[in-house]
Design goal:
With 379 residues, the chain is α/β, with parallel strands linked by helices. 46% of the residues lie in helices and 9% in strands. The chain contains 14 helices and nine strands.
Length: 379
Amino acid sequence: MRNKMHDYWSGNPISPISINKNMSITDLVDNVFDRMGYNAKRLAEACHLFKTMIDKNSTVCLTLAGAMTPVGMGGGITSMIENGFIDWIVTTGANTYHDMHFAYGLPVHQGDYAADDNELAENNVVRIYDVYIDMERTLIAQDKIVRTLTHKALIQNKFPEKFSTAHYYKVLGDGVLETSKNPGRSFVAAAAKHEVPVFVPAFADSSVGMGTSYLPLIACAKKNCKELSPGDFVDPSPTMDALESAAIVHNSMINNIERGALEVGGGVPKNFLQQTGPMISQILGMECPGENYVIQVTVDRPDTGGLSGATINEGKSWGKIPKAGEGNVIPYLDATVGIPIIFAYALENCKPRKPKKYGRKLPEITQELIETAMLKVEV
């Protein structure tokens, strides 16, 4: 006897796909990927879910792991910022560092993934798979730019006693806007211009972190001193990062705004975003169900225990999402293929949104979170 509890045949019938030379991205997603299976279907679901986030005016966070900007991903992120589709960003220092090369016209070229790395090193060529970056003309030049912009901001007292990485990158992005030839080619500059906070929770794990840590040594050498002076440090606070990111989520909650995330890869950026729910509920003692919508584009396996492969549904037990199996999708795809398609689909199908400008609001909403949380503190 057949089990009649489930309608196994409610899904659309699969037919051979139809491809033609005049297809748009929307045609490809809706009329090809969405009618297939495997990761083509997951990618179509991701495109539709990202559109839902935007159409519902959700607070959308982009998390960006890996080395995405060296292959030009920053241009797509800039488009999302300019159209109001992304409200805040969590990324690695490496992505911000390499993003700035393009604003200053520093060499980044396609190369050969099968090249002789000993030979490349002898010629001062740095390789990221099939991308070549010049050690002197790009990396060392970028290091000097970061140090110069940061030092200038330091002597202009643009860093308070306690500040987050979002504050640092607002200052750095403003510097890129002021001094680079092509600021439109940097998502860090676009984020600063449009008041989109950029958090880099693993700040020390990048050339930006290394460069800023060198500033006190320079200052000490100039003063011929033997000890580093606290006033010469540019030292973003992990505490401020945790509070400000939670404040964005808390502010959305109290204003009945849904929240969504587009996760490129995993790692620290993914977890930093997803810990905002437990930060508010587990640590601060206020109810928070987590992100309403989550898309993760990854190629990592879930069965090794690595966070980059951890499924979104696994986050339910941590309080990172409201309900497992709803409002989330994982296309197991190379992000350099999947993310541009998701971005392009959004541009074709969504109207630009008014920017939420959380960067401007961070001090106010963070204080609001602190005052609310203090009412629940047990002494």
